[in-house]
Design a protein that fits this description.
The protein is α/β, with parallel strands linked by helices and 276 residues long. Helices cover 34% and strands 24% of the residues. It is built from 6 helices and 12 strands. The strands form 2 sheets. Strands 6-5-4-7-8-9-10-11-12 form a 9-stranded mixed sheet, covered by helices on one side. Strands 1-3-2 form a 3-stranded mixed sheet. The longest helix has 45 residues. It is elongated.
């Protein structure tokens, strides 16, 4: 029994010795790997071959920042996102953070940011698509009317270059309302325009101040009439109005506002601007 106990003790000593050996070996390897990694990291950070050129060296635009997909988005805003990266190593660029910053620019719907070694940042922008002009409240400082663009998600867009858009005008949307409310209003207008199809060609303006009561400005012959459409059956109500317009014009030549909110019923209102 004593011999067996001594043999077990020797085996336990061998096992512990091996454990300690591998533990020390593992620690040494980890320390070595850390030291090597620090040396590699210092090399990536400090070697001038990985340094992103500063814009000042190239008349305001760094050749190491490549931006694709932009037409209306502000180039200066995009460059500003990467301002602190110019003059330092590509290794230090936080691409996920930069992507989040790009998404804060009004025209940017999506963005990808890539590192191309040794020192290039490549950015691809997907821009928002405007679906209408939006007539905003006048500027309180000068009282001037303001127009902007808006996309289907309710983002207000301001063009920074000359561009021509053939889009309807929406009124009744405010900058200070929530994005969700603006989105709901725009989607209601788009739904109405889709429903009426070709009839939308003569509509110049849609008032969505009350989402449950759309009001449109319709060009009919040589007149511009205000049509109150309500919240449904837009196509049927417009078609009924157009089919009976000649009779309406004969009986009420002064009518500039037409209430179509009741299906099958047309109510002509006098010229509200002149108080009739």
């Amino acid at each position: 029994m004593k011999a067996v106990a001594e043999q077990t003790s020797v085996l336990d000593g061998i096992h512990w010795g091996r454990f300690i050996f591998w533990l020390i070996t593992g620690i040494v390897l980890m320390i070595g790997a850390f030291v090597v990694w620090r040396q590699v990291e210092n090399f990536l950070i400090n070697d001038p071959r990985f340094r992103i050129a500063e814009p000042e060296e190239y008349a305001g635009q760094s050749p190491d920042l490549i931006v694709e997909g932009t037409h209306y988005a502000s180039a200066s805003q995009i460059r500003h996102v990467f301002a602190e990266d110019f003059g330092r190593s590509l290794y230090l660029v936080p691409i996920q953070k930069r992507r989040r910053q790009l998404l804060e620019i009004d025209w940017v719907a999506d963005a990808t940011v890539s590192k191309i070694w040794p020192k290039t940042i490549k950015v691809h922008i997907t821009e928002r698509v405007p679906v209408a002009f939006v007539h905003l409240r006048p500027n309180p400082r000068d009282g001037m009317s303001r127009f902007a663009l808006i996309d289907r998600d309710g983002y207000i867009l301001r063009p920074r270059i000359a561009a021509r858009f053939t889009l309807p005008v929406i009124t009744g949307i405010r900058e200070d309302e929530s994005l969700a409310d603006r989105r709901a209003r725009v989607r209601r207008v788009l739904g109405m325009l889709k429903e009426i199809g070709p009839l939308a060609a003569q509509i110049s303006e849609i008032n969505i101040a009350d989402p449950n009561n759309l009001i449109v400005e319709e060009h009919v012959e040589n007149s511009v009439l205000t049509l109150i459409l309500g919240d449904e059956n837009y196509a049927d109500r417009l078609q009924n109005f157009l089919a009976n317009y000649s009779e309406i014009k004969t009986k009420r030549p002064d009518a500039t506002t037409i209430d179509l909110r009741v299906d099958g019923v047309i109510t002509a209102v006098g010229d509200t601007k002149s108080g009739q």
